[in-house]
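Entry 14. Two folds queued back to back today. First construct below, sequence then structure tokens.
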Amino acid sequence: MSSATPLPLLRLCRMAGVSRAGFYRWRCEPQRSDPDMDLRDQIQRIALEFPCYGWRRITAELRRQGGVVNHKRIRRIMQLDNLLCLRHRKFVVTTDSGHRLPVYPNLARQMVLTGIDQLWVADITYIRLQEEFVYLAVILDAFSRRVIGWALDRTLENCLTLSALHMALIRRLVQPGLVHHSDRGVQYASKDYTDLLKDHGIRISMSRKGNPYDNATCESFMKTLKYEEVFRNEYRDLPDACARIRSFLERVYNRKRLHSALGYRPPAEFERSLQGPSASPASSEVPL
């Protein structure tokens, strides 16, 4: 026994059943690096920016960044790192269809979309602030999933939906045959709203009573909005909520978030690919 070897170390080696030489060889060996370290870092950066991305969108984003990755490897790493999404919360229906205003037939059900500005879909949701509720009205292009009009306010009166519609009409060129689809809520059935649509030659379509699947595109958008923006933040007041939601809609949802229905591309990029270098003003980028 060498007197240079500390006694506690000898006891530990005996207890572990290893020799002193084996212990020193292990201690001197270079530690093996995690072969997934760089990939893990990339995945966690994407998951931090888009916490509700599943393994499919993470894989698509990595491939867009030039990576050659296997989806099974991505799913395994995300499962080990507890990055797979779990969703439990339900949604509140805010539609008031108990009115005597004219109700229009569902034209959207029969449509086969081939381009933008053929079908616009609209809906309203509520957003909770620290001390009050506010309401968000949105209009999406059903083909590109792009938000083309929105308004946030404390009221559910007609001015909310009219503001969103005015924004959409400013941003897009109304094409012949354009259909506007919504639920049967009083805001969308009001004379002011339907007259504005008719004045621009837009055909009116409404969902069947009590059937949220008739407006599935907007329902899916509202789910994305709630899980990826609203439930992650606490808004102080209406101006704070407006600024943050504007940033999410215009900078994240329209221009960065990948949509599986668009071949894992953001709506703005998808629209540019349709229009080519001679894009019309109807699909031009909107300044923030």
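Second construct, same run, same settings:
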Amino acid sequence: MTYRAGIIGAGGIAGLGILGMHDSEDIGEKKFTASHAGGYEATDGIDLVAVADVDEERLDTFAEAWEIPEDGRYVGHEAMLADEDLDVVSVCTPSYLHHGPVLDAAQSDGGPDVIWCEKPIASSVTDAEEMVDVCDEEDVELLINHSFRFTDKQRRLHELVHEEGLLGKVHAVSTQFRMELLRNSTHLIDALVYLLDARADRVSGYITGENEAVDTLEAEQTVDDAGGGGFIVMDDGTFVTVDCTVPRADSSMTLQFVGSEGKLYMNNDDGEWRYWDLVDGDHVERDLAEYGIEGAWTWDEDYQRAFPNAAAHALELLEGTAENRSTGLEATRSLEVIVGFYISHYTGGQASIPLDRPLRDVEITSW
């Protein structure tokens, strides 16, 4: 059986190409594997048959690049959802516009069984929770595109930490990545939540107000998203520091874990992962190849493969052969940390997680 896919939002991450990541002359001309359309194209069993966008010029540029016929192009997602019988729908709109299309897709007549939504899940915890609840009510799998969860190395590392006790009890984690918190560093926060398998209990945050997206995306709209960071106390007692204030060109995604049985250092930008086993009070470096991880995670290889892996996982969900490994519930736990940073910064105090109901409505807009 071949499943039918549609995309809402014909922008960069959908497959058009992203300024700052791709050469300007390639935007709308080349097919990029690290995209939703690229993921579908790499997956036997799913065909991309339709795309919707409110910008007709962008819609046609995308459709020409990905060979979507005229009758599969829609101005506005409502028309696509009404006319097409789709099994999986990608939501690739700006993050402050995820909420409506996800609800519309989940509640549409003969709607999809899987919604593959870009990260971050939403701009407010309230919106994210409603998306999760509606998808549950409609028996739709909400799959959030936090890419690290779809890489083989990260999945193996998760097994090592949680099933094989590689680090023992994790005491502390220090992390660093580029601004902005929602557009970029949601990847970092989700990787943290995923590897610790824990939820934040308390956060204290600082927001710089700096945003590079105006230049890199040639964006005109002002949004709240900015660099920042702070500390997190997880519900298992782990203490975490987060620094996402660094300009993109100068940044590296790094995480360092210190546990009762060892230390782990991850530098994803420079392709360096190192592990030290704690033996009789001394840290002894071990090759991660001994534990089934060959080499370190890199953007050029692992990130590129994450999209085909995610599309293949969507196929598994359609066929009922796997459990969702990037749920809306877990994405909401990442979002509430970032919202908590903003609340802490602007109130001058710490924020407790889960957020009280009025604070769940706080909206942090981003692209």
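Quick look at the second one. Residues 299-319 form the longest helix (21 residues). The chain has two domains: 3-148+306-319, 152-297.
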